[in-house]
Amino acid sequence: MLSLLYQEGPSTEGIFRRSGSAKTCKELKEKLDSGVDVDLTCESIFVTASLFKDFLRNIPGSILSSQLCDKWVSVMDQGNNEEKIKSIQRLIEQLPRANVVLLRYIFGVLHGIEMRSEENQMNAFNLAICIAPSLLWPPVSSTPDIESEFTKKISSLVQFLTENCCRIFGEEITSLFGEI
């Protein structure tokens, strides 16, 4: 899924913004959940993007860990970019290894898409708006006002992560998928 998003996402206008067919997504999700091999190259890239966001939303406690939610939210309130990057790196060290590996690939994809934002209209801000709610959510539900403020903060964090992913995860993030 990520390889396909890495390959086609940068040249797809509105990737992660436009939804795939709900019926197709539901059918494919059922197939994937039951272990059936699915050839996503035959599907719309928007279906793949929708399935991927759904996958992220179904990670128990979120990929960034709802237990660290307050710490993630407070990162953007810190001083300069260096302090933010160091705080983010310390938080990443607290995540399970599988989450870190997946995050590296996710931000490798987002970086590739952002690098061609003039073509696909998906700069770091737009990507963050679309993907942030799938990466972290509060451990308990709250009022709509508080949730709206939370979403803004997490979107700002994801935008920062996307814009600084090479410094946060290392330059090799740009070559995780090799030559596709």
UniProtKB/TrEMBL annotation:
Gene Ontology MF term list: GTPase activator activity
InterPro entries in the record: ARHGAP20-like_RhoGAP, Rho_GTPase_activation_prot, RhoGAP_dom
Superkingdom, natural source: Eukaryota
Keywords recorded for this protein, A-Z: GTPase activation, Phosphoprotein
GO biological process: regulation of Rho protein signal transduction; signal transduction
Keyword Phosphoprotein: yes
Domain Rho-GAP as annotated: residue spans: 1-169
Keyword Phosphoprotein: yes
Pfam families xref list: RhoGAP
Descriptive protein name: RHG20 protein
Gene: Arhgap20_0
